Amino acid sequence: MSILSHWSARREHPGVDALNKIMATTVLRRSVDDSLGLILERTVASLGATSGSLHLAEFPGDNLLLIKAVGVERRDLVTDLSWDDDLIWRLHHAPDKRNILVQPLNYASPWAALAAGRPVTLAAIRLGGRHKWSGVMVLAWPYRSQAERYLETLRIIQQHARQVLVDYEGTEQRTRDFQAMSARLHCQEVLARTVAQDIANRLSLTSGALHLLSAEANLPPGQVEVLQRALEQVAVLTQMLEDLKCADRSIEPEPVSVEEVLEMALGMIAQHQADHSFQFEMDIPSDLPELWCERIDLLQVLDHLLHNAVRHNMGCPNLQVWLRARPIRNWIEFEVGDTGIGISPEVQPYLFEFVNRADNTGKAEGYGAGLWTCARIVAAHHGKIWVSSQPGQGARFFFTMPVRSGMVRHDLSMNLLKIRPVPYPMRLDPG
Q: What is the mean pLDDT of residues 329-344?
């Protein structure tokens, strides 16, 4: 039985209605700060506390930074706290292993910011993930009896907040693992195709020379036969190189939760936000059906489009990047957009071709395996991909993926890398 079910069965507990509201908080489409901040807001409102604050350190030993404050006038007093603070030190050395401390306010401490000149009792709750984050939530009530009345409720909220941190740690680690794997595969793929292309060019020259030689009328019959066999071998090698450039692999679709994939996408964009300044927005309905696709392939498409939206617009002030999704019959349409410099019309028809990569100004930058791979993956899932952009007005990339209920399973049992993407320009036909 879950924690929430356990308390829902005990309707006499004073905090059960509050728990139903607080634990309904979802981490989907929110950062860790936003998720914990929402938990604090609902805790203060539901348990009748006069004020509260939440502080978090991303790594052990870092100062505790203020994440969220409710009903606090002097936020500057509790903005940056050391682990040597008396309340925090006592909380982390309390004999109670569950780490919840209830005590009267010491008006000489920074926590006077929670009192607004009134006598209050503080309840300090220790937070922490499995390996990374550590923090504290502090709530204030006028009377000690009020704080003690909700002790069991606070312990459950503590467990819920800790689980949020653990979930974010797991999402970040999975994102790092995926990006590392994706980078290795991308390098190997580009190297293989580049080498195959170079060898194919040399084979083409060799084939031309052999054809010229075979056209000589005075060659003995034995030499003609040797030349013919050589030409046959060159043709076989050419086909083998084509297969190397588009390696044979069958996709293996499975039911994929959109929410799970988007949590991973949040981790991806968080990695970019650590290095670049931009605003990110996610607009996803909460009731989307399951997809029928390869999870890693979908993540690869999202990762590349999000990465492009940031990398090609790093110099743009007030850059905004967004990810949206909406259902269209048996499909989910994804949109990755930005308010960057846009893409010139001359470049757009060639964006999804392998040998034509360009930046947003139209300047060629070498092999364009990224968007070509995106188009290939989407096409292998019977979807479509296209772009809408004007110079100076940003770019919006769209692609569709099938939902589970709308696909016959054997429909996608085809070779992923041998699919030829739908020619550009492409438009979505909802039918």
A: 94
Q: How far is CA 271 from the centre of its chain?
A: 9
DSSP string, 207-268: HHHHHHHHT-TT--HHHHHHHHHHHHHHHHHHHHHHHHHT---B---EEE-HHHHHHHHHHH
Kindly state the tokens that stand for 376. 């290939």
Please tell me the predicted confidence (pLDDT) of residue 366: 41
Q: With beta carbons less than 8 A apart as the criterion, state whether 248 and 418 touch.
A: yes
Q: Cα angle vertex 392, ends 389, 397, to 5°? A: 25
The pTM assigned to this predicted structure is 0.48
Give 238-246 contacts, CB < 8 A, sequence gap 24+: 238/200, 238/203, 238/204, 238/207, 241/196, 241/199, 241/200, 241/203, 242/196, 242/200, 244/192, 244/193, 244/196, 245/192, 245/193, 245/196, 245/197, 246/417, 246/418
Cβ proximity of 347 and 322 under 8 Å? no
pLDDT tens profile 223-257 = 777 777 677 667 656 755 665 565 555 678 889 98
pLDDT digits (tens, 9 = 90+) for 113-133: 998 778 899 999 988 866 677
271: nearest Cα among 223, 234, 310: 310
Around Cβ 413, how many Cβ atoms within 10 Å?
10
Q: How far apart are the first and last CA of the chain?
A: 44
Euclidean distance between CA atoms 183 and 256, whole angstroms: 23
Predicted pLDDT of residue 418? 41
Q: Rounded distance, CA 209 to CA 175, Å?
A: 51
In the block, residue with structure tokens 């901040």? 37
* Per-residue tokens: 362: 């139209």
What does the alpha-carbon distance between residue 144 and residue 53 come to, in Å, rounded to a whole number? 18
Q: What are phi and psi of 362, to 5 degrees?
A: 100, 0
Answer yes or no: are the C-beta atoms of 133 and 163 closer than 8 Å: no
Two structure tokens written together for 324: 């949206």
Non-local (6+) Cβ contacts of 245 within 8 A are 192, 193, 196, 197
Gyration radius of the chain over CA positions:
29
Contacts of 401 (CB under 8 A, 6+ apart): 291, 293, 298, 331, 332, 334, 378, 381, 383
Q: Return the top range by mean pLDDT from 25-39, 222-236, 245-259, 275-289.
A: 275-289
Q: Please enumerate, as own/partner, the contacts of 190-198 that have beta carbons within 8 Å and a separation of 24 or more.
A: 190/367, 190/369, 192/244, 192/245, 192/247, 193/244, 193/245, 193/354, 193/367, 193/369, 194/367, 196/241, 196/242, 196/244, 196/245, 197/245
pLDDT at 137: 93
